[in-house]
Amino acid sequence: SRLGPKKNLLFLLEALRRTRAPIHLGIAGRIADAAYWRRCERALAGLPAHLRVTLHGALHPDQVAGVLARYDVFALPTLDENYGYVVLEALAAGCRLLLSPHTPWTDVERAGVGRILEVDDPARWRAELEALAEWPDADFERSRGLAVDYARRQLANDEPLRQVQRLLAEAVARSHAG
Fold it and tell me: What is the pLDDT of residues 74-91, one digit of tens each?
């Protein structure tokens, strides 16, 4: 993802700042807003020592799956996503999701692959992250399997492609009618 205000990394860093559990945070993406990134860097510098941070920078598409597979959880407190391909990539890599409600991925709780959390409550995100930090490996293994299966089902569903094709056909028809 691009690192800018829309992705809401500062919110996540605020939630992490008060966690007590040891957590390893990986941040990947191209800096889209230098001023926002400077604010993130200041927040990163203020994190407690038990939080480990790895800055991956911008990744080549071939690297994304390998980097995501190193982590158990993918957190995206985004303020707006029209689809969120990175969410699908995280699922395919076996990551459990923590998402804001501002994505179309609204059924992740029902599917057992993640949680939807409002972005006005850093304490809720912190509590969820701390609870996940206590999960036994067996729970994460089960969650990984569910995430990968969910991603496979999403990729096998061609209804979104048909919807885009219908939309484009209607746009072409309107442009020729006028």
Answer: 999 999 999 989 999 999
